Amino acid sequence: MKYVKNFLLALSILAGVAGCSTSGGPSRAERESALIAAVYDAVDALVGTQQLSPVIASGGGVRVLVATVVDLNNLDQSSPFGRLLAEQMSARLAQMGVSVSELKLGGKLYVSRSQGELMLSREVKEISASQNADLVLVGTYVEGGSSVYVTLKLVRASDSAISSAFNFSVPKTGNIGFMLLKPVK
What mean pLDDT comes out for the span 164-171? Predict the structure, then answer.
């Protein structure tokens, strides 16, 4: 009888503790969709500036060229992560009614390292001119221990002036870490 009472007591304690515990954070699906939400929020912030919002809202015919987001430590290199960011940025801009130039030129869009700042290369200026692009969306990412940090900039194609910029970070989940392991030149 004493054994049964102790067993029932232990069982009720375990049930109580289990009832108080949580899952320990967001689900895997929530963590993975956080990337899309972060990119969409970034694009919303980039085009929501005082300079750009009225032009876009009026259907002002702004054309944006989206460059692949590159590794800050090697501006000649990207990864599936950087290409995915560019795809998501393009999708969000299109959802907002912005005219987006779809380019799959493999290595034709890059940024110049010469001045240490994110500047448009001459080739990007030529490509944006041939595509009648008013703005070029460029960006960099850097991998941290548990997060990936991203900087995006909307740059005027005519003079390389930064129209708007936005920084964000996302947790380095298993999928994001996997995409960062495969550099693409």
Answer: 94
β-strand partners of 112? 119
More confident residue, 35 or 129: 35
Provide the whole-model pTM. Answer: 0.73
Mean pLDDT, residues 131-160? 89
3-state secondary structure of 4: helix
Instruction: Report the Cα 138 to chain-centroid distance in Å.
Output: 11
Domains in the chain: ranges and CATH: 27-180 (3.40.50.10610)
136 φ/ψ sector (left φ>0, alpha ψ -120 to 50, else beta): beta
Q: State both tokens at 60.
A: 């002002």
The total of other beta-carbon atoms located within 10 Å of residue 119's CB is 16
**Among 111, 61, 103, residue whose Cα is nearest residue 83:** 103
Distances (CA, A) of 113 to 46, 58, 82, 119, 137: 23, 36, 18, 8, 17
